[in-house]
Design a protein that fits this description.
Organism: Eubacterium ramulus ATCC 29099
GO biological process, one term: L-arginine deiminase pathway
Number of domains: 1
Low-confidence stretches: none
Largest sheet: 2 strands, antiparallel
InterPro entries: AceGlu_kinase-like_sf, Carb_kinase
Protein name: Carbamate kinase
Radius of gyration: 12 Å
Mean pLDDT: 92
Order of helices and strands: HEHE
Keywords: Kinase, Transferase
Shape: globular
Helix content: 25-40%
């Protein structure tokens, strides 16, 4: 995010929210994907995952 890879008003708010969620508790993972591809996202074949390390 700090490098400016995400456009404000586009992906940036989604990534910020996903990072905030993932960092808010142990074992939390955020998934960014299209609603139509939610099943594939949960199965790990599409989307962007944000995982707290």
């Amino acid at each position: 995010m700090e490098e400016g890879h995400f456009a404000p008003g586009s992906m940036l708010p989604k990534v910020q929210a996903a990072v905030e969620f993932a960092e808010s508790g142990e074992g939390r993972t955020a998934l960014i994907t299209l609603l139509q591809k939610a099943k594939d996202g949960v199965n790990g074949t599409t989307g962007t995952r944000i995982i707290k390390k």
